[in-house]
């Protein structure tokens, strides 16, 4: 889908991100209604708190994915991001607050600490993984 109205598209991206993340929460926590609601509340509050920063990140991202006319093809955009995600090599490690992340070779791993609060909420999952296929799922939410 091609778009020229980048402000409208920015809103569509944020809505798709929230829908995508909520669907992933549903997948990750089957049969845990309270945990799902807790995580979705956190996601919503996080997105609201960082809305202005997300707008800035998306605006900067648009500089790289729009053509010379300022148009963006969402299918090409998502396919390109998925391709770049696959190409990250070697695997990189990052520490973000209470979780560690690994990213590379088409996979993002969120390494959860083993503590009472998280174990009550999500069980002892250890690592939550997202792959290139998860990124490609996002494309369906933009069209």
Structure characterization notes:
By secondary structure, this protein is α+β, with helices and mostly antiparallel strands. It has six helices and six strands. The strands form two sheets. The chain has a four-stranded antiparallel sheet with strand order 3-4-5-6. It has a two-stranded antiparallel sheet with strand order 1-2. A hairpin with a 2-residue loop joins β4 and β5 (107-111). α1 (6-28) packs antiparallel against α2, α1 (6-28) packs across α6 (132-142) and α4 (74-87) packs antiparallel against α6 (132-142). The model has no long low-confidence stretch (mean pLDDT 89).
Give the class from helix and strand content and strand pairing.
Answer: alpha+beta
- Please work out how many helical segments DSSP would assign: 6
Total beta strands: 6
Main pleated-sheet profile: 4 strands, antiparallel
Walk me through the topology.
Elements: E1 2-3, H1 6-28, H2 33-49, H3 51-65, E2 72-73, H4 74-87, E3 92-96, E4 99-104, E5 107-111, H5 116-122, E6 127-131, H6 132-142
Antiparallel strand pairs: 1-2, 3-4, 4-5, 5-6
Helix pairs in contact: 1-2, 1-6, 4-6
Quickly describe the structure:
The protein has 143 residues and is an alpha+beta fold. 61% of the residues lie in helices and 17% in strands.
